[in-house]
Amino acid sequence: MDLRQLRYFVAVATTRNFTRAAEQMHIAQPPLSRQIQLLEEELEVQLIQRNSRPVRLTEAGRLFYEQSLQVLQRVDQMKTTARQASRNQRQSISIAYVPSTLYGGLPMVVRMFRQRFPDTDVHLVDMGSIQQISELKSGRIDLGFGRIRSTDNSVARTVLREERLVLAIPPAWPLAAQAGPVQLKDLAQHKLVVFPKEPRPSFADEVLGMLHEQGVKLVEVHEVRELHAALGLVAAEVGLCIVPAAARLRSDLVYRLIADEQATSPIILSHRLHDDSWYIAAIKQLIVEMYAQNPLWLDFKTNAFPTGLATGTASASADALK
């Protein structure tokens, strides 16, 4: 097995077509097919179902594809690191985020990172939680801050905190008359604004799924692309909107905590499995230090933390992030 065979296999698995894969790799199709056949013979397992159009991966092929991506990404990373070292170049990392995390701790963590590691460039990329998984596996990003739980075994995830959800309400609506927590069932027969409209699945699906589990039937669901638009429509009395507690951005709305303690949205740090890059441990340590500072934006009443993460000793906090 060699890297060339892995690259050929990944090209076929990505394009689902031998002809396009051969064009992409600048090789004739017969030798490309032959190399993949030799790879299968060495592994003693079928990776590709050739009798389907487009071609499909076997279960073994799907697992091998995920691992191949990690190997090739690691090789590319090694090349880049070696070249940077030889040219004394600055290192750079790419961090993806969902917009709502910008109203929590992400900006503070990035500032702290830049101050402590001034020789490393940080590139921030607006990206949905699910898209972050595929971009991590392809090596296009190094870390992701998202909100949707994933079961992909090639990505490691750390829940940094569980953030309570609140209901944004137009001030003139009856639900705004009280200040206490609101029950999910109280949203029945109301109009709801959800975000983001795409890509899916997203926070919108988490909210709708939560209401469905409670048997709450809505009059109408209005989908918008981003948080600011959703809150703007609430201000225009188009409907209600469920948002993370940190996203109480408009002062012309009333916000009521969702009474169900299970009505939370996680902040999840994701990276490639078995990736031991130094910046992962550095980011986690900075998060521990950030929580220890008890910043003004961090409302302990609307956040739940892994054991010891926010209130314990530094060592206990570090252990919670491992």
Given helix and strand content, the structural type is alpha/beta
Distance between the termini: 34 Å
Low-confidence stretches: 311-320
Order of helices and strands: HHHEEHEHEHEEEHEHEEEHEH
Notes on the structure:
By secondary structure, the chain is of the alpha/beta class. It has 10 helices and 12 strands. It has helices at 3-15, 18-25, 29-43, 59-87, 106-116, 129-138, 203-213, 227-235, 278-292, 314-320, and strands spanning 48-49, 56-57, 91-97, 120-126, 143-146, 155-169, 191-194, 220-223, 240-244, 254-257, 264-272, 303-304. The strands form 2 sheets. Strands 3, 4, 5, 6, 7, 8, 9, 10, 11 and 12 form a 10-stranded mixed beta sheet that branches. The chain has a two-stranded antiparallel ribbon with strand order 1-2. Helix 5 links the parallel strand 3 (91-97) and strand 4 (120-126). Helix 5 crosses helix 9 (278-292). It is globular and about 70 Å long. The relative contact order is 0.13. Mean pLDDT is 88; it is low at 311-320.
List keywords for this structure.
single chain, 322 residues, alpha/beta, 10-stranded mixed β-sheet, two-stranded antiparallel sheet, 20% strand, disordered C terminus
